[in-house]
Amino acid sequence: MTSSLTVQNLSVRFRLPGATVHAVSDACFEVRRGECLALVGESGCGKSVMAHALMGLLPANATVAGSAWLRTEGAPPLDLLAAPEKVLARTVRGRRIGLVPQSPAAHLTPVRTARAQLAEALRELGNPASADELAARAGLDPAQLDRYPHQLSGGMAQRVVNAIALAGDPWLIVADEPTSGLDRPLVEATMTELRRLADDGRAVLLITHDLRAAERVADHIAVMYAGRVVSLAPAEEFFAGPRHPYAAGLLEALPSRGFVPIPGRPPELTDLPSGCAFRPRCDRSTAACSHLPEPGPVACHHPLEHHVAR
Amino acid sequence: MLRADGITVAYGRQRVLRAADLTVAPGVVTGLAGPSGCGKSTLARVLALLRRPDAGRLTVDGTEVRRWRHRASRDLRTRVALIFQQPRLAVDPRLTLREIAEEPFHATGRPVEDLADEVGLTPELLVRRPHEVSDGQLQRACVARALALRPRYVICDEMTTMLDASTQAHLVARLEAYRRETGAGVLAITHDEELLTRWTEPSGGPTVRMT
Question: Between B37, B122, B166, which is nearest A253 by CB?
Answer without folding.
Answer: B166
